[in-house]
Amino acid sequence: MKRIALFLATNIAVLVVIAVVVQLLGIGRYAGPGGLDLGALLALSAVIGFTGSIISLLISKPMAKWSTGAQVITDPQNADERWLVDTVARLSERAGLKTPEVAIYEGDPNAFATGAFKNSALVAVSTGLLESMNHDEIEAVLAHEVAHIQNGDMVTLTLIQGVVNTFVVFFSRIIGYFADKAINKDGNGDGIASFVVSLVFQILFGVIASMIVAWFSRHREFRADAGAAALMGEPRSMISALARLQQMQTGALPQSVAAMGIGASPGLMELFSTHPPLEDRIAALQAGSR
Questions:
Q1: Average pLDDT over residues 8-13
Q2: How far is the CA of 167 from the CAs of 45, 147, 206, 209, in angstroms?
Q3: Which of 110, 169, 240, 287 is 20 to 30 Å from 186 by CA-CA measure?
């Protein structure tokens, strides 16, 4: 739950900060004596909506390293590190990708992939995952993360986040405009009431938008599982890895890479979870293998 709350808060905070800066600078006027300029408002909303998500994508790899303490393996120091690097290289070759950076970080069982470009990505696994799974299961998890890179999931989710952010800003500003006009009938709809009301609705719509993004993320997890099975040549190892994860407490990840990790949130928070329940993922793999 803490991870999901952080994800929501960070995305909404980025939108709010950019909106405040735009307001203070007086950029992108969309209201005047003639009423709303919907074209100008949509353009402004797109700038605000996509700026945060694109910046997050571009800095995703260094931020992931910093926030998890992941150490990139540049010169393998033991047989386990050599196996890890060689396995990611072999899977990446099968996927038609340049080998991503491979890193290890201290923590409970988890793994993630991130990066702005397919051929400049990062795959990281936790010490907890390496200690609790056998090689076949670890390889399946690595294949799952390589499949995320192959599918371009980081870019896709960034674009989806940018689109929903655009509409969050667009509709919240429209509501703010009419609220300001109702309070100050002689105004042009861009007074302080418009700013305050639009920020409140931006936060509210931002929560709803996060559910939409999470739904897309859950859908892409099934694709990554299927991709892992294809890279492995069989679904058995991926099914075994997911079954093993059911018996563990997966580690939390920073929101910048949470959508590329493993695990799901129970109950109502499942609506905000970037991952579907493990039993659903296992069932999907089993159905696809029949």
A1: 63
A2: 7, 30, 10, 9
A3: 169
CATH code for residues 70-151+227-288: 3.30.2010.10
Give me the amino acid identity at 210.
Answer: S
Query: By three-state DSSP, how is residue 174 classified?
Result: helix
Residues of the chain with CATH 3.30.2010.10: 70-151+227-288
Identity at 240, one-letter amino acid code: S
Catalytic sites, residue numbers: 145
Percentage of the chain with pLDDT > 70? Answer: 81
Strands 35-36 and 101-105: unpaired
Query: What are 38-63's pLDDT values in tens digits?
Result: 888 888 888 888 887 888 788 888 88
Confidence of residue 101 (pLDDT cuts 50, 70, 90): very high
Residues in contact with 49: Cβ distance below 8 Å, sequence separation at least 6, in sequence order: 15, 162, 163, 164, 165, 166, 167, 168, 169
